[in-house]
Amino acid sequence: MDLRLYNNRTRQLESFEPQDDQRVTMYVCGPTVYNYVHIGNARPPVVFGVLANLLRRHYARLVYARNITDVDDKINHAARELGVPISVITDKYAAAYHDDMARLGVAPPDVVPYATAHIPHIVAMIERLIDSGHAYVAEGHVLFSVASFPDYGKLSRRDPDEMLAGARVEVAPYKRDAGDFVLWKPSTPDLPGWDSPWGVGRPGWHIECSAMAEAHLGDTIDIHGGGVDLQFPHHENEVAQSTCAHGGQVFARFWLHNGMLNLGGAKMSKSVGNVSLVHDLLDQHPPEALRYALLSAHYRQPLDWSEGLIEQCIRTLDRLYGTLRDLADVPVIEPQVPFEVESALCDDLNTPAALAELARIAGEARKATSPIARASLKAELLGGGQLLGLLQQDPAAWFSRGSVDGDDLRIQGLVNERDAAKRARDFIRADAIRRQLAGEGVLLEDTAQGVRWRRG
Ligand SMILES: [Zn+2]
Prior knowledge:
This protein is of the alpha/beta class.
């Protein structure tokens, strides 16, 4: 089935063909872990997670990376307020993020790279940018020279004046151009720092994603996703760094940007007071209803987030699970992805159309009387649901609301995170999680089917 995606690089709906159909690559910008994330930050992992499910059906292998930014001035600030090392903050909120995403039904990506585990890679990339004349050293900082990359501004279609306004650039005397951005900055002894050819310092945010994408996915990646709020300056800077570090090669062939969440009509961002933390919402509502709500609008459109929307999604899921409960006498069958659900998703990830299709199938199932029709409609409901990350609970668990063991989900989230850390060869993090779980009496067992856990 032809997969068509709206490519923000070309501003066109295009047929997606990977560079190598044996190894499709996708990178999505993950959170900066200094606090619990707000619900707007859950939209990219949910929608690009559905895209990952779809790509895995179409191609032999997908390598999907979603990073964790674990060094940042906001993290430093949070650590200083509490008088603790930054790892106390980042361990806590990275774990909470993985846990919250697991509760939202987001399958873990193949690679979860942490910025602080990639410092040598970041330094090497910066050195290449300096050597090729795209970056310069000034007063302990390394800056990217925007003037050295004539395509700067192309992704976000901005002219230089707009860019300066949009980036709220820091005016600094050592910058050649006001728009030049930091690749490396010096650290004082009270701040986290690493040795580098330019003294003890820490990386800028943008270079982390370029270096981690290169380390895990290669020079040119098939798909880069993220919120449209990151398009400028973050993604524009990623393009500049990676393209220049790779001798002009295309960085990301497809750029996909999700729209923002509107909460009570106001744009949701960290700077306004109307923040709804995923962590809190998950305690107040059935997680699957939040997931359904995040998929209820097309990913490129803004999504009006409200209590009313969540209530409506709960009622829709009640109907779908009610249908599955009525089909309980149908013997266990192999889930089948309905053609219409898959073709809706292949049409630029049209999740509203795919959800409407699930509702139509459920309606047919409620009317069906023949055992063959009931069995095939149940298989389609479960198969379509699987692709969307929905309808995989026992109907009884859905209707029991909240009596599901939340601690089991938390442990599963940690197990998933450890698994991802191991695959990213971040053995320090993987061991830390194993020790944490062991401390709670949870035993892990590596089996051919993956990691199993049990309480000791
Ligand atoms: Zn990024």
